[in-house]
Amino acid sequence: MTLILDTDTAVAHAWWWRTGDGPIAPADLALLSKDERDRAARFVHPGAAVGYAAARASTRRILSTLLDVAPKEIGLGRRPCPGCGDPLHGPPAVLRPDTPLWISISHTGGCGMLAVARVPVGVDVEFVRDFPVEELAPSTLTESERQIVLGAEGGGARTRAFLRCWTRKEAVLKAVGVGITTDLRTVETRPESSRPVTVATGVPGTPASWTVTDLDMPGTWAAALSVPAQTDGSHPEVRLHEHR
């Protein structure tokens, strides 16, 4: 309980876990709401269904230890979108029980993640795989990002550089609450730096700048976490945990 009672807004936590290809574990399915079970059933790819179900179930298990309630008692939903006010596609939220915590959820091939903080938070994880970087760069990267990413030697290094940009952009925009509806070419992530970076966005009613930190994940995945930038210029402390 010391974790949840910590009032330091400069600390964020992230948990990651491994997932399989299917079928969905009965223990995970038992923790899903009816709407979540229906959504899991609509996934065409079994791995995507497993990842989604594991993400919702693992989120409840982790929050259960923080909020001292049973996993089934935790209601997950969304905050209204800060861009349009629509409650159907804003950032994820804990609806029940009442808590000051903000959360962000992400899953990809073989891995899921949950970020928790006392301020808006965003997390993104991506499976490291071959991307058509040259095709994606014009529509997703700033001019300076394109120079760095396309200038990377070798396909593996280029993919890593692209994913650093992508996960940072996703983490920021998920923290903002609008997702990738924003023009990604306007979000500069400074991929030349492996240290936490400050990223600016132009969404009214949200923090103007965010601190994004790359997460030290196994080489199979790339991930980043974002919280509002500190007014004193310091970087937040990010604590990464493996959830088993």
What does this structure look like?
With 244 residues, this protein is an alpha+beta fold. The protein has one domain (2-242): Ribosomal Protein L22, Chain A, CATH 3.90.470.20. 32% of the residues lie in helices and 25% in strands. It has seven helices and ten strands. The protein has helices spanning 2-5, 26-29, 34-42, 46-67, 133-140, 143-150, 155-176, and strands at 11-18, 75-78, 92-96, 102-108, 111-117, 122-127, 197-200, 209-214, 221-228, 237-242. The strands form three sheets. A four-stranded mixed sheet has the order 4-5-1-10, covered by helices on one side. A four-stranded antiparallel sheet has the order 6-9-8-7, with helices on one face. A hairpin with a 2-residue loop joins strand 4 (102-108) and strand 5 (111-117). The two termini are 19 Å apart.
What order do the SSEs take from the amino end to the carboxyl end, as H and E? HEHHHEEEEEHHHEEEE
Q: Give the spatial strand order of the biggest sheet.
A: 4-5-1-10
In terms of DSSP E residues, the strand content is 25-35%
CA-to-CA gap between the ends?
19 Å
Describe the sheet with the most strands: 4 strands, mixed
Radius of gyration: 18 Å
CATH topology: Ribosomal Protein L22, Chain A
Q: Please mark out the parts with pLDDT under 50 across 5 or more consecutive residues, or reply none.
A: 1-5
- The CATH class designation is Alpha Beta
CATH homologous superfamily, by name? Answer: 4'-phosphopantetheinyl transferase domain
Q: What's the architecture in CATH terms?
A: Alpha-Beta Complex
- Share in helix: 25-40%
* Mean of pLDDT: 91
Tell how many strands the DSSP assignment holds. Answer: 10
Number of domains: 1
Total number of helices: 7
| Principal-axes shape call | globular
SS class: alpha+beta
